Amino acid sequence: MGRLYRIIVVVGLVIQLAACAGTSAIESQSRQKDIRLARLIFLREKGVFGAGATMAANIKVDGKPVGSVTNGSYIFIDRPPGVYKLAVGTSLTMDFETEVRVDAGQEYYFNVGPVTTGIPGTDLATYALAGVRGEEMPGPPA
C-alpha cells in the first residue's frame, strides 16, 4: 500500500510541475506576416483537463530550439521557402521528427500531440490529458 501511495504522489507532483511550464517562443510572436516567408504554426489543443495539464512540448527546426507549447497554446515561426526538419518532444520522451517542404506566403499548421501507440487504454488516457493526436493540419482555405 505504501508503494502505491508513493507512486500516486510522484505522478501528481510530475503533473503539477509540468503544468507550471508555459509556452515560450524564441522568435517574436507579434511580427507581421511577410509574403516572402512561410509561416509554420505549432498548436496544442487543451485536452480534457484544460490548458497546462501536461508537459510542454519542445519544438526544434533543423536541430535548433524555436520554442515550446503547452495545452491550449500555440507559437509560430517564419522561414524562407525550402525543406525543414521538425522535431517535437518533451524532457521525458524522444523527439518525433519529420521533414516538411514549405512555400513562400503559405501557412502550415501542426497539431502537437501524442502519436498512436496501439496499446489499448494508453492512447485514450494520453488523448484525455494531451488533447488530440499530433499531425499536420490543413490550413485555412485560400
Explain this structure.
There is one protein chain. The protein has 142 residues and is α+β, with helices and mostly antiparallel strands. Helix content is 20%, strand content 35%. The chain has one domain. The protein is built from 2 helices and 9 strands. The strands form 2 sheets. Strands 1-4-3-6-7 form a 5-stranded antiparallel beta sheet, with no helix packed on it. About 9% of the residues have low confidence.
Strand content: 35-45%
Number of DSSP-assigned strands = 9
The best one-word shape is: globular
Number of domains: 1
Essential attributes:
alpha+beta, 35% strand, 142 residues, four-stranded mixed sheet
Give a quick summary of the entry.
This protein is an alpha+beta fold and 142 residues long.
Describe how the helices and strands are arranged.
Elements: H1 2-20, E1 24-25, E2 38-44, E3 57-61, E4 64-69, E5 73-79, E6 82-89, E7 96-102, E8 107-111, H2 122-130, E9 135-137
Parallel strand pairs: 2-8
Antiparallel strand pairs: 1-4, 2-5, 3-4, 3-6, 6-7, 8-9
